[in-house]
Amino acid sequence: MEPELFQRIYQSIANKESTYDGIYYTGVRTTRIVCRPSCRARTPKPENITLYTSFEDAVRSGFRPCKRCKPETPGAHAPDAALAAEIDAHLAAHMSRSLTLESLAAAHRISPYHLQRTYKRVRGCSPAERLAELRLAAAKRMLLEEDKSMTMVSEAIGYRSASHFAAWFRRVTGMAPSVYREQQPPRKAGDSKE
Ligand SMILES: [Zn+2]
After folding, report:
1. Going by DSSP bridges, is the β-strand pair 49-52/25-28 parallel, antiparallel, or unpaired?
2. What is the pLDDT of residue 118?
3. Model's pTM, two decimal places?
4. Which of 17, 28, 55, 78 has its Cα between 20 and 30 A from that of 136?
5. Which of 97, 89, 91, 103 is nearest to 157 (CA)?
6. Burial readout 85-113 (b: 16 or more C-beta within 10 A, e: otherwise)
7. Is 35 a catalytic residue?
């Protein structure tokens, strides 16, 4: 490897940046452990590092995966579609919390920039747009199919107050949630179509 490239990668390791995650794997000869370049563990000395272009190669050379950065699990090095699917699952499971691009990226150990770009390329919309869609669909379903109060519906989709939820719902659908609930005919049991 060219010394210049090694220097660039080593800088990203020292700064714990995810730039080279999934592209290179950091084998640390002194500990026989392999890490993602962005691993939060102490930065190894450059002379102790062997870089691999695949996780499997590092393992074949006798390195064990780091317990901290888990280079073997999907994350930045997962195929883009797998990453998008992981993000979708995360959004659906946590829509009652306040989710930011930063927290989402941290949970998946990738940079916000990489997350935003990859997700958009695969799904055609940003994670925030997707989250809004999921929240709207969940709110509509709860309004029509469940006997929840406005406060309960609001909290279930991450709004701290019914008035914030109502303002958002009205902005997106052009109608207050109470009006939406009343004007739709009640659904028959077993009819789960959107
Ligand atoms: Zn590590």
Report:
1. antiparallel
2. 87
3. 0.56
4. 78
5. 97
6. ebbbebbeeebeeebebeebbeebbbbbe
7. yes
Instruction: Extract the runs of DSSP E, i.e. beta strands, from 45-87.
Output: 49-52, 64-65
Model pLDDT, residue 193: 45
Neighbours of 79 (CB within 10 A): 12
Answer yes or no: are the C-beta atoms of 19 and 37 closer than 8 Å: yes
User: Rounded CA gap, 112 and 128, in Å?
Assistant: 12
pLDDT in tens, 78-113: 567 778 878 888 898 899 988 999 999 988 888 899
Å from CA of 160 to ligand 1 middle: 37
87 alpha carbon – ligand 1 mean position (Å): 22
Q: How far apart are CA 155 and CA 96, in angstroms?
A: 6
Count how many Cα atoms sit within 13 Å of the Cα of residue 144 in the half-sphere of its side chain: 18
pLDDT tens-digit readout, 114-144: 899 988 887 889 999 999 999 999 999 999 9
pLDDT over 50 (residue 194): no
Distance 35 CA to ligand 1 centre (A): 4
145 neighbors 153 (Cβ within 8 angstroms): no
From the candidates 35, 39, 66, 69, give the one annotated as an active-site residue: 35
User: In this model, does residue 45 exceed pLDDT 90?
Assistant: yes
3-state SS, 149-184, equals CHHHHHHHCCCCCHHHHHHHHHHHHCCCHHHHHHHC
